[in-house]
């Protein structure tokens, strides 16, 4: 597969400690270890693996060339290209592409469980994909077609949650959803709540599904929450800093809220309003493969690229 990954240095320091800077990049003194890898995080990563061994979870050998200690803790994926995949294969219904994409997601969840990725966040449905008033001038036939696809996606998500629940439990995967749930059906919201409750104690992998999600919405709701706390007197103006805002973002449900690696499929070179704050220092990998064609070989390529990089978090290249 031809990848469009960015130019990279020759090694990865994902788990290496950084030298103390003379001048801090931040005005606050809150704990930043969730974004800046240190020996503490490296030790935590090793402890996680040790806990799995103690629980009887057999370590699956990694593909040749990958290092377990250099695996990204949090991988985020923009699953793009389902419709194009269906059209290229002559399917009349684009639903065939989405069904195939669901199979790719099942495989990726299993690989993450086996290879030690702790958090997997997938962009399942953007809030921007809902029908909005400004497109009302489009032909009614087109609007009906779009609505049918949206309805199918919601139905597919519901069916996948039901069918995969036993697998999530067996794999030790915890499931969470993020996004504006106000547009979701009551039956889907209840199912999401049930799945989150039944998997909440699982710790091998945290699968976060972004549904009706928008990065701008995430930052906005975080600001509103802080503003309300200031109004209520529980937070002072001088207490507001990056760390406080990050605590209000929806990804705060995860042990590692900010992705180490973002993968986008289908050759598109943009992040499309996904995890805008959280991707500040994330390594980006753009794959040519359409999402239904993204499998083990493509994931290995993305991980290999990641492990060859030197992460600097805004600092100078050493």
CA radius of gyration: 20 Å
Biggest sheet overview: 6 strands, parallel
Low-confidence segments, given as residue ranges, are: 1-11, 15-42
How much strand? 5-15%
- The tally of helices reads 8
Lateral arrangement of strands in the main beta sheet: 3-4-2-1-5-6
Q: Level of helix content?
A: 25-40%
How many extended strands? Answer: 6
The secondary-structure element order is: HEHHEHEHEHHEEH
What does this structure look like?
It contains eight helices and six strands. It starts with 38 loop residues before the first helix and ends in an 11-residue tail after the last helix. The chain has helices at 39-54, 82-88, 95-115, 140-171, 186-199, 215-232, 242-248, 296-307, and strands spanning 74-78, 119-126, 173-178, 205-213, 261-264, 283-286. The protein is globular, with a radius of gyration of 20 Å. With 318 residues, the chain is α/β, with parallel strands linked by helices.
Topology (SSEs and partners):
Blueprint: H1 39-54, E1 74-78, H2 82-88, H3 95-115, E2 119-126, H4 140-171, E3 173-178, H5 186-199, E4 205-213, H6 215-232, H7 242-248, E5 261-264, E6 283-286, H8 296-307
Parallel strand pairs: 1-2, 1-5, 2-4, 3-4, 5-6
Name its key features.
318 residues; alpha/beta; six-stranded parallel β-sheet; 8 helices; 11% strand; disordered N terminus
């Amino acid at each position: 597969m031809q990848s469009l990954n960015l130019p990279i240095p020759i090694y990865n320091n994902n788990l290496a400690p950084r030298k103390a800077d003379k001048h801090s990049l931040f005005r606050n003194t809150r704990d930043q270890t969730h974004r800046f890898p240190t020996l503490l995080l490296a030790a935590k990563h090793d402890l996680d693996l040790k806990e799995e061994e103690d629980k009887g979870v057999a370590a699956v050998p990694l593909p040749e060339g990958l290092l377990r200690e250099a695996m990204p803790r949090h991988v985020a994926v923009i699953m793009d290209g389902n419709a194009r995949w269906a059209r290229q294969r002559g399917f009349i219904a684009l639903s065939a592409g989405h069904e195939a994409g669901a199979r790719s997601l099942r495989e990726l969840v299993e690989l993450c469980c086996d290879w030690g990725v702790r958090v997997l966040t997938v962009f399942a449905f953007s809030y921007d994909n809902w029908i909005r008033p400004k497109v009302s001038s489009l032909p009614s036939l087109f609007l009906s077609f779009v609505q049918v696809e949206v309805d199918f996606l919601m139905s597919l998500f519901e069916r996948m949650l039901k069918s995969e629940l036993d697998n999530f439990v067996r794999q030790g995967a915890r499931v969470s959803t993020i996004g504006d749930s106000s547009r979701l059906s009551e039956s889907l919201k209840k199912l999401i709540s049930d799945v989150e409750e039944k998997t909440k104690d699982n710790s091998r992998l945290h699968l976060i599904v972004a549904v009706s999600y928008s990065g701008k919405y995430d930052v906005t709701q975080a600001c509103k929450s802080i503003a309300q706390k200031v109004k209520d007197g529980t937070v002072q103006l001088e207490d507001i800093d990056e760390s406080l805002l990050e605590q209000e973002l929806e990804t705060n449900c995860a042990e590692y809220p900010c992705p180490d690696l973002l993968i986008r499929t289908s050759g598109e070179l943009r992040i499309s309003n996904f995890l805008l704050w959280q991707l500040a220092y994330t390594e980006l990998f753009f794959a040519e493969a359409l999402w239904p064609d993204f499998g083990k070989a493509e994931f290995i390529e993305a991980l290999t690229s990641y492990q060859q990089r030197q992460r600097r978090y805004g600092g100078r290249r050493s």
